[in-house]
């Protein structure tokens, strides 16, 4: 055990621990979720510390030997080392101070070892005087959240592009399968199965574009603003060079905000991005709901498509297969909507020069991005790609319904169409049989009007005077 002290007193810390007294206090105070800070947030925070060490060395305010030790410690962490020492809970008071302290202490203790020192002896490299030089939690943490969010957002955007492609492939595959369209869950007019998939693809394409543009909202950072965005204690050379180092290290086109007090206290950008993610979740849930309806049954429901069978559906009902992948998508959507509510509440609850609730914003935003990044490939690979059309069921349901009558009203009149609908319900005869039996249309014209391409798209009307008049 080693002893460390702070303004509140002393604490004993395990010798093996690279974190220090500030982290240990946070561990004791915030045992809440059992989840430590997100790995992408750790990487973003460490990247900022590396950039700061390089910048402070370059402008001549940090001893090169100390800077190199800090940089080496950061590189070790970024390569995957020491990850089990980032232990503070993702849900923490203090606007992210606990997370920042955790990062500072681990880097400082490892840097001390590089210089021949020992953990807990901060004479060589101090967590605050050196690792945290010219920084505050209030500019470091919001900047790190933005960097981490951008990194998590990129693959999600790509997965939405993949989903759009998968739906468009099904649109083409099912383009000639005509079926009953439905409004308000009631039979409406004919559509093709491909058109239904095409409509979903269009919605996903909008989500893809929205999320692609959302990255721009996250690129403006307040690093260099220190405590409240005024830049107190940070040299101008540090402020202007720091953003260049971060661009180099992250590969992200970050920009220093013109008014650093703004992102220090205002979190509306996170509400906006979360709202776009919520919108995409709503789209996914709508598609999942439709897939469950269209595949329902399969014998007593709609049953117009079959979803891939991925696991047994019941412990008591043999042969039952459930739409578990769409159900998982629905549940992810529900959680994303809940996360968005938490982000909204946290963002509007900041006061004056700082939002103290950045940790819950970060936790929920990263959870949303993680869930989307996990569920989208599953949705594509284990559901969408394997969907099969039950073409015969589509045809039978169409022929046994009144949906084709709408296409015939321009030829036989609304009243005759209504009479045909009543006859169908009473006799079970097909629409074609009823029309021909009543001599309402020429059979050849009837066949032409009922062609799939005429029933499912705008076409010119070749009027024919009803033959019964």
Characterize this entry briefly.
The protein is mainly alpha-helical.
**What is the CATH superfamily of the largest domain?**
Fumarase/aspartase (Central domain)
Number of domains: 3
| Strand order within the widest beta sheet | 1-2
Rounded average pLDDT: 94
The fraction of residues in strands falls at 5-15%
CATH architecture designation of the largest domain? Up-down Bundle
Rg calc: 31 Å
Structural class, from helix and strand content?
mainly alpha
Q: Give helix and strand order, one letter per element, not per position.
A: EEHHHHHHEEHEHEHHEHHEHHHHHH
Span between termini: 103 Å
Largest sheet: 2 strands, antiparallel
Percent of residues in helices comes to 55-70%
User: Would you count the extended β strands for me?
Assistant: 8
What sort of overall outline do the alpha carbons produce when their principal axes are compared?
elongated
CATH topology of the largest domain: the name is: Fumarase C, Chain A, domain 2
The CATH class designation of the largest domain is Mainly Alpha
- The low-confidence runs, each spanning 5 or more residues with pLDDT under 50, are 464-469
Number of H/I helices: 18
């Amino acid at each position: 055990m080693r002893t460390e002290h702070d303004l509140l007193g002393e604490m004993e810390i395990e010798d093996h621990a690279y974190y220090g007294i500030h982290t240990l206090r946070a561990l004791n105070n915030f045992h809440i979720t059992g989840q430590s800070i997100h790995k992408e947030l750790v990487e973003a925070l460490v990247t900022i510390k590396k950039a700061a060490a390089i910048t402070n060395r370059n402008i001549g305010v940090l001893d090169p030997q100390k800077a190199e030790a800090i940089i080496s410690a950061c590189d070790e962490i970024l390569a995957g080392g020491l990850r089990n020492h980032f232990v503070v809970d993702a849900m923490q008071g203090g606007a992210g101070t606990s997370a920042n302290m955790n990062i500072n202490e681990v880097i400082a203790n490892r840097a001390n070892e590089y210089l021949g020192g020992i953990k807990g002896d901060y004479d060589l490299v101090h967590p605050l005087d050196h690792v945290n030089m010219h920084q505050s939690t209030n500019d470091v943490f919001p900047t790190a959240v933005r960097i981490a969010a951008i990194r998590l957002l990129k693959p999600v955007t790509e997965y939405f592009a993949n989903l759009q492609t998968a739906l468009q492939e099904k649109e083409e595959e099912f383009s000639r399968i005509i079926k009953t369209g439905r409004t308000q869950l009631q039979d409406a007019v004919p559509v093709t199965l491909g058109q239904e998939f095409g409509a979903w693809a269009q919605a996903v394409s909008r989500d893809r574009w929205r999320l692609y543009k959302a990255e721009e909202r996250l690129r403006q950072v307040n690093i260099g603003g220190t405590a409240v965005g005024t830049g107190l204690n940070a040299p101008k050379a540090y402020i202007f060079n720091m953003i260049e180092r971060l661009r180099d290290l992250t590969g992200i086109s970050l920009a220093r905000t013109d008014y650093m007090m703004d992102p220090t206290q205002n979190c509306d950008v996170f509400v906006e991005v979360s709202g776009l993610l919520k919108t995409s979740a709503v789209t996914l849930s709508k598609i999942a709901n439709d897939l469950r309806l269209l595949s329902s049954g399969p014998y007593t429901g709609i049953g117009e498509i079959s979803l891939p069978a991925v696991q047994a559906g019941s412990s008591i009902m043999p042969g039952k297969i459930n739409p578990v992948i769409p159900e998982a998508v629905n549940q992810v959507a529900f959680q994303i909507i809940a996360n968005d509510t938490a982000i909204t509440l946290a963002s509007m609850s900041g006061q004056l020069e700082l939002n103290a609730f950045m940790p819950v914003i970060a936790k929920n935003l990263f959870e949303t991005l993680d869930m989307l990044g996990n569920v989208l490939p599953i949705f594509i690979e284990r559901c969408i790609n394997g969907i099969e059309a039950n073409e015969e069921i589509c045809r039978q349901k169409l022929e046994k319904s009144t949906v084709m009558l709408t296409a015939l009203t321009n030829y036989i009149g609304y009243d005759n169409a209504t009479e045909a609908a009543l006859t169908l319900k009473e006799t079970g005869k097909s629409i074609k049989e009823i029309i021909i039996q009543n001599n309402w249309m020429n059979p050849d014209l009837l066949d032409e009007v009922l062609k799939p391409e005429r029933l499912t798209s705008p076409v010119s009307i070749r009027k024919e005077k009803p033959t019964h008049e």
